Amino acid sequence: xxxxxxxxxxxxxxxxLVKDHLEGHGHEVIDxxxxxxxxxxxxxxxxxxxxxxxxxQAELGIAICGTGVGISIAANKVPGVRAACVSEPFSxxxxxxxxxxxxxxxxxxxxxxxxxxxxxxxxxxGSFAGGRHAERVALISQMEDERTRD
Length: 150
What we know:
The chain is an alpha/beta fold. It has one domain: Sugar-phosphate isomerase, RpiB/LacA/LacB (Ribose 5-phosphate Isomerase B, Chain: A), CATH 3.40.1400.10. 49% of the residues lie in helices and 17% in strands.
């Protein structure tokens, strides 16, 4: 699977760990940065991850900042992105199964390395359940379509 990954300075070290983990499991990783621990603006990297997913360059994306909140908000501004900010594996799994989340976001200041990898594995191990959940995701897409037409 091709996965885009990006972070701001706060997520820099954790992003490298997650990237190595993904590559170790045979995934192709598109690393959109940030490529140093120097301070940067998280919206730039949330957008880059979101655009890689929305354009089809990547199947899924992972975005990391200090809390995961800001970068997920930025990624969710890209039409077609459903970014879920999580801090434990159960929510990561259900974001895929129920919400068809195509971007996983979390905070390097919130979760440690071990928990981050557990969340990534749970998220990648899930698949969209469809059914009643498909109707709900379609409603979200409809809301997005209405907003982009205005």
